[in-house]
Amino acid sequence: MKRWGLFLWLLASCFLLLESAFAASFDPSKKWMTIKTDHFQVHYPQELEVVAKDTAGILEEVHAKLSPELKWKPFGRTEVIVTDSTDDSNGMTYIIPYNWMLLYIAPPRPDSPLANYDDWLRTLIIHEYTHLLHLDPARGFWKPFSFIFGTVVSPQSAVPGWVREGFAVYEETAQTTGGRNRASYTEMLLRAAVLEDNFPKIDEADGLGWNWPSYNLAYLFGGKFIAYLIDTYGEDKFFEFIRRTQKSPLITMVNHDARNVYHKTFYELWREWQDNLKDKYDVIKTSVENDGLTETFEIVTPKWDEQFSAPVPSPDGKKIAYIASSPHRNTEIRVKDLETGSEETVRKANANKIAWSPDGTKIAYSAASLYKRYNVYFDIYLYDFEKKKAKKLTNGERGRDPSFDPAGGEIIYVTSKGGTDAIKRLNLETKDVSVVASSESKNAHFADPKFSPDGNTIAADAWKKGDGWKIYLYSLNGDWEKRLTKGSGMETSPLWSADGRFVFYTSDESGIPNIYRADAKSQASSKITNVLTGVLKPASSDGRKFFVQEYHSKGFVISSFDAPEPAAEIGADKKGKRGPDKIVETAASEAVLEEQGEAEPFEMSEPKKYGSFGRGLLLPRFIMPGVVYLQDAFLFSATTGGADVLRRHNWLAGGTYRTDAKHFGYFGTYFYNRFRPVMGIGINDYAVDFGDLTFLYPSGETNTVHYFEERRNANAFINIPIKKHSFNVSYFYEDRMPITSLTQAEKDVLNLGIFSGFFGSYVYSDPERYPASISPENGRLIRLTGMMTDGVFGSGERNEMRIFSGDWREYVRLWHHHVLALRAAGGMTWGDRQVQGTFGLGGALGEGTFAGGQSYNYFPLRGLPVSALSRTRAMLMSAEYRVPLVSPQRGIGTWPFYIKNLHAAFFADYGNAWNAGENDESNIKTFFDEFFLGVGTELRADFILGHGLPLNGRLGYGIIVLNRDRLGSMKDPLLDTSLKYGTLILQFGTSF
Predict the structure, then answer these.
(1) What does the alpha-carbon distance between residue 436 and residue 444 come to, in Å, rounded to a whole number?
(2) Cβ atoms within 10 Å, residue 753
(3) Sign of CA dihedral 812, 813, 814, 820
(4) What span, in angstroms and rounded, lies between the C-alpha atoms of 405 and 428?
(5) Most exposed residue of 132, 435, 500, 559, measured as fewest CB within 10 angstroms of its CB?
């Protein structure tokens, strides 16, 4: 579950907030309503009113329990959004600009790490509200800073991710009868890591890397570690640690607080916990091995950190289809020929389940995609092997988990709406849809329906309150249902035997996920595998040879095993036997249920139409410091702002200071983000660096100055995003004046005063980027901009111009994240000549956080200082070969520094800037005579500061190798050495 806390010392850029607001749109076609309680305002689409009222009640119950426990009462009412816009089970918590929670009500699927819940909405609220009560406080040393800077000051945002997420997982477990700390999925990950000697170090536990188990480290390992600390040393100790970190001036120095509380460092406590787990799992290993381990055979060998899931053999047993995911590429559906070993990628899709047609000519699968711009839903697709094409069978119906009937003419699948599920039948010929089973209440959910061989019965996962996930049998017409077994574990992934007598499924009844077989009539069941880690999702074409998703400490693989005869089944004479790792917390669970029934009374208002203009919009709640590095200068900023809860109305305002120009500026922006297009207005006062300008007097004397110009701008804009395209048009009125001290004669030479007109831009972007990427890959970015100033629009008589610039980038993946990056960019000015120049060429300013090179009129040419040339026309061509070196994916203990990737780039920048008439543009033989060629190399790093702020850094060397005579007396601004010997590159952000 995602969250975003920012804190003072990071000086995060205000652009983060701007981008967040633009991305946070909610479906404007829905009628949004609001319910108010004592401590919350709940906002929701009208069709979710029942869910919203339940949410409001649970929120107040959770507040009454957790607020006294954590000794913190948030200021005012917390704003909460309830939505059903995605099939992803998730939530978010923000404390900027005010306390704000987003709850997605779709419940977790049975194969999710979140599947062990007793009430999804309650579990989600406990997790997210724990975050809010954890992140919001600023005590002791930080209290006066909080008074000045507001919600930006959040010391807990600077603690490791395993503390933040682990604590929330602990509370979601302690306050319910479910939770991830009780889940066999969590135990499976820890058990495999210990027994296979692949236990993560504490500096990996933030979950910031892309290697498995990635983010699960913070949630699952973190949750279990926090539980160990509380079980071993007491809850009071851990709460004391939290309060210390909320008030200590030694921000991020959690080991200092650990020593004071536990008299041990977290390094010692982590090793102590690991030793405790080893003792526990050694006992389990001995017990499991005494029953005889099931021999499994790996069918598909992972490459490049792949994870495999959902294996399904073809009806003739000669092929197997499965889903392959990887941090290096898109998720794929693959088919492997089991006889020849050859593989093919059938589709690239964010799929979760696959089913073969009975004749083996097609597969049906469910995959998530964007629906009507504001939603991400699963839908059913049908892929034809002969035509090699896929067609969509459902559209926005949220269909998932497809399965064919025995004749191949129908598909059954699960749909969702408003947190409730139904099992439906789709006739592939007539397109008729009928309901097989629907939720008895809002607390019932379905997954993985499967036709019996005779086509009359359906076996499916069904979640019911108090029972969890179990296998149920349903009649085809929905007349009856019954439990398949009386087992106590979580049961998932049913599979019928060929004769319809048995149903195979996964159960964690022993504490370890294994495959079981149940008699469809008598309900008798027995375990047919016995493994140490876990096997899930059984699949078979003949009932003898099975394929499963098997877990090891590096992730999931596809394995096979041969099913034993009923007489030889494991535990056949030991019915009901539990393994020693089964977690039984009956007394605690009953206590939790009892507490849940003792909620204090609270007031709930009648639902009202959502209103944007509350104090959440207009009242500033924070001051966010920011900084941008400009090679030899810094641009500091302080930003405040606000937004209504649905992010329809957004505003930002603040001040800036640029060190090289010694200029104080300001800015303010308002934009309306309810519909498409996005509209807004803004003001901006800022400084522009034109580099060195030389003035020539009639006497022959010259005066060279480093020229900075102040610009005061007011504008109104409209932005239209359409998938991969974005169009922007704005009207602006700008006054330009020198900051640098000039004589009146020098001022008269320059184009100053009023520039007014229209600015337009078009952007197309489709590069791919994966968790393990070092660069955009396999795509292009095109940016075209145009500006027209004219006296008709208010411009001065010498300031009538037409300016055009373009930027075309290609990112070609050569092999395993080796990327050839190409760029062609340029700009031209027509009309009145801007003497001080329009386009700046030179330098290595980057793009991204803390970087200052994003301007459309800036062209970096490494080997030159920033804006070495400022002219009315410019051209730049760049090429880089980007090479991954190593991916440490490690931190430094509990320190707030984490390195993901180290990589290198070899570059060549070729370009020039000139004024119209200075270069004969019609003569191709001489046009390039004065172009600079800069070459060099950079060492780059992708790292994370403060356990959450991703950054890119570059250290390199560039030198001009063509037209070096034009360098004259230019010097490296950092080393103060002649440019003829090259320049040092030290920058934040990517090059392009």
Answers:
(1) 14
(2) 14
(3) positive
(4) 11
(5) 435
pLDDT in tens, 654-698: 999 999 999 999 999 999 999 889 999 999 999 999 888 889 888
Q: How many residues does the chain have?
A: 992
Confidence of residue 594 (pLDDT cuts 50, 70, 90): low
Q: What tokens appear for 370 in the block?
A: 């964007």
Instruction: Give CA–CA dist 973/983, Å, rounded.
Output: 8
The span from the CA of 206 to the CA of 216, in Å, is 9
Residue 367 to residue 380: CA distance in whole angstroms: 7
597 pLDDT band (50/70/90 cuts)?
Answer: very low
The Cα–Cα gap between 21 and 15 comes to 10
- In angstroms, the Cα distances linking 177 to 173, 420, 511, 568, 758 are 7, 21, 16, 35, 61
- Cα–Cα distance, 509 to 484 (Å, whole number): 14
pLDDT tens for each residue of 507-526: 999 999 999 999 999 999 99
Question: How would you class 923 by CB atoms within 10 Å of its CB: exposed for 0-12, middle for 13-18, buried for 19 or more?
Answer: exposed
CA distance 326 to 307: 6
Instruction: Return d(Cα 108, Cα 469) in angstroms, integer.
Output: 11
* DSSP label of 607: P
| 59 three-class SS | helix
Q: Give the chain's domains with CATH numbers.
A: 1-7+30-155 (3.40.30), 159-292 (no CATH), 307-567 (2.120.10.30), 615-988 (2.40.160.50)
Work out the mean pLDDT of the chain and round it to a whole number: 91
Contact 14, 652 (CB under 8 A): yes
pTM for the model stands at 0.92
| Residue located via tokens 């289809």 | 321
- The alpha carbon dihedral of 441, 447, 451, 457 has a sign of negative
pLDDT band at 839 (very low <50, low <70, confident <90, very high): very high
In the DSSP assignment, the letter for residue 857 is T
Separation between Cα atoms, residue 311 and residue 321, nearest integer Å: 6
Name the strands in the sheet holding 525-527, side by side, starting at the edge strand that comes first in the sequence.
491-496, 502-507, 514-519, 525-527
Distance CA 958, CA 909 (A): 10
- Give the count of beta carbons closer than 10 Å to the beta carbon of residue 981: 11
Residue 598 pLDDT level (bands cut at 50, 70, 90): low
Report which of 57, 61, 97 is spatially closest to residue 76, judged by C-alpha positions.
97
